[in-house]
Amino acid sequence: MLDLGMVLDRGRLDSKFFLLPTQLFAEANDNDYDALATRLYGFRFLTTRRKKMATWHDFKKEIKVSEGSIFHMYLDTVGKVTVGVGNMLPDVASAQKLGFIDRKTFKTATKDEIKAEFEKVSKLTKGLIASSYKKDTTLDLPATAIDTLLDSRIETFKKELKLKFPSFDTYPMTVQFALLDMAFNLGTNGLVTKFPGFKKAIEAKDWKKAASESNRPQLSSARNATVKKWLEEAP
Hints:
Blueprint (H helix, E strand, L loop, with lengths): L3 H4 E2 L2 E2 L1 H5 L1 H7 L5 H9 L14 H12 L2 E6 L5 E4 L2 E2 L3 H5 L4 E2 L8 H12 L16 E2 L2 H22 L8 H22 L1 H8 L3 H6 L8 H12 L3
Antiparallel strand pairs: 1-2, 3-4, 4-5, 6-7
Helix pairs in contact: 5-9, 8-9, 9-12
């Protein structure tokens, strides 16, 4: 913490603080920021620091943690072959469209190699920890390809959410993040049918009420806390 006693010596301003008040404020933390402005200038400034707002980059980082970002094919809880950030592959053809590479040689996988791996994974036990399938695979999807798939899923969910919530584009960014997180987990239909109280609060733009209605018992407390925080912080 900045020592105000060092700044003000019996009411005398040190020249560097007088000439460079912005530098001084940069050294102050949130607890003494207002007090410093008051003592320097003789009256209170509106000096509350603006909170760092979440960005789309922050959202993608969070969803990767929540959903997992897996480089190899694995089975989800219902037995669907999946890769990346919860990106379900409905059939061999959908997997063959992706740029899988051999984990050891880094060479681009052939369609036959992708087909063989898809069929092998599809016969494994479903619903295990995603990382446990790695030992049964030899192909990986590069991080850039995973990010491209994630961006595509986000855009798809946005379009679906706009059909459910026509004012979606006008919602604060953190509210959009919360809706997208729930869509990733529940699907857009599940979101509106399984959480009617949440849906009603969103439509009423009552973000605090929506926060209280957003809890999903089957998910981790950390993920629920993040969504609740996004909603509570919405202006």
